[in-house]
Amino acid sequence: MSKDLRPETRLVEAGRRREWTGLGEGKGGIVNPPVWRASTMLFDDIAAMEAANPPRDGTLHYGRNGAPTQWALAEALTEMEPGAVTTKLYSSGAAACAAAILSVVDAGDELLVVDSVYGTTRAFCETTLKRFGVAVRYYDPLIGADIAGLIGDRTRAIFLESPGSNTFEVQDVPAICAVAKPRGLPTLIDNTWATPLFFPAIGAGCDLSIVACTKYIGGHADLMLGAVTATESWAKRLDQTSRMLGHAASPDDAWLTVRGLRTLDVRLRRHQENGLAVARWLKAQPQIARVLHPALPDCPGHEFWKRDFSGATGLFSIVFAGGDDAAAARFVEALDLFGLGYSWGGFESLAIPHKPTRTASSNDWEEPIVRLHIGLEHPDDLIADLEKGLAAYG
Ligand SMILES: Cc1ncc(COP(=O)(O)O)c(C=O)c1O
């Protein structure tokens, strides 16, 4: 596929190789790669079996090493990150975060992790990583180039997530990468919120870009899948670590994810439009102190969103002006169009109260925070629903 194609066109074209969609010569065949469901794969003879080793994408070997359904998704995700050479798939976004981290650290190292990191990644760092002798130090999401002051002899890698989970601080990713690169430190980023469509993280200087495809790329709240896309420098370590941990992505979920990927652009633009309409309305309500939406000036790091991102998605938080947890619970429970549940990125709206666990941030909010995912419903209907919630908040 031509590297000159625009991202919207790459979303449509990527991963649709003839050998994965067609039965013979010419242009005939199906449009999207089908589900190849397999554990055992058969070889013509011993020579063919030996030629398939070591396992690699694009050569049938054994179910864990994938088949055209997974390879098509991996190739398409690589195409969405100019400068990347490979993508590995996992059974969840959490597995992708853990595998990416394990690919870059060794016992005795220290990992710098953004304080606004997703909770399960933080828990992984606090438990498994520490158990294997890797120290973890959290840094303020707004630290920027001052991260240089935290780098010591043992520092081995920097983990970013931008915007941060639930509090949405946007990081100065290029500044952090510019500090890391000359010191030989890999940068890993959880890029789930923006997806590579709105923020191609590898192009911004990151070495490993992680996406929980469970969210926007799948887009329909019906699958679990994670991906890590890497530069040449880290491709081998990522591949080896992922294989040694036995990771595999289900062909059915990979197929659904490719299906979701094709419409990512139109869905994200509608999430953006609806999200901003609702966010701006909320900002004008007396019960709301701040709207933590990367595309609005209230959000810490908004200037980096403006500089680096080509769009905003539908996930943001509101900080109430006073009130308590019971009021936040009344707000959420009074909503009909917003479901109460984990995850986000599907076509439907969600609302969930949140208490940040922060140890190194300049931003801390005592007041209740509720995270909203704005789906594809009409924003006026969502606003009418939120009016009911605010009336219940008191
Ligand atoms: C920012 C972020 N990263 C990673 C994950 C983990 O993804 P998964 O639920 O697919 O394990 C989540 C899940 O909510 C998330 O919000």
Task: Provide structural commentary.
- The chain has 394 residues and is an alpha/beta fold.
- It has 14 helices and 11 strands.
- The strands form 2 sheets. The protein has a 7-stranded mixed β-sheet, with helices on both faces. Strands 8-9-11-10 form a 4-stranded antiparallel β-sheet, with helices on one face.
- Helix 8 (195-198) links the parallel strand 5 (187-190) and strand 6 (208-212).
- Helix 13 (325-333) runs antiparallel to helix 14 (379-393).
- The longest helix is centred in the C-terminal third of the chain and has 20 residues, at 264-283.
- Pyridoxal-5'-phosphate (PLP) binds at residues 92-94, 97, 118, 120, 165, 190, 192, 212, 214, 224, 226, 343.
- Residues 92-94, 97, 118, 120, 165, 190, 192, 212, 214, 224, 226, 343 line the site of pyridoxal-5'-phosphate (PLP).
Gist of the model:
By secondary structure, this protein is of the alpha/beta class.
The shape is globular
What's the gyration radius in Å?
22 Å
Biggest beta-sheet profile: 7 strands, mixed
| Alpha-carbon distance between the two ends | 56 Å
Query: Spatial order of the strands in the main sheet?
Result: 1-7-6-5-4-2-3
Describe the protein's topology.
Elements: H1 7-13, H2 18-21, H3 46-51, H4 68-79, E1 86-90, H5 93-104, E2 110-114, H6 119-131, E3 135-139, E4 155-161, H7 173-180, E5 187-190, H8 195-198, E6 208-212, E7 226-230, H9 232-244, H10 251-262, H11 264-283, E8 288-292, H12 302-308, E9 315-320, H13 325-333, E10 350-354, E11 369-373, H14 379-393
Parallel strand pairs: 2-3, 2-4, 4-5, 5-6
Antiparallel strand pairs: 1-7, 6-7, 8-9, 9-11, 10-11
Helix pairs in contact: 4-10, 5-6, 5-9, 11-14, 13-14
Bound molecules: pyridoxal-5'-phosphate (PLP).
Pyridoxal-5'-phosphate is lined by residues 92-94, 97, 118, 120, 165, 190, 192, 212, 214, 224, 226, 343.
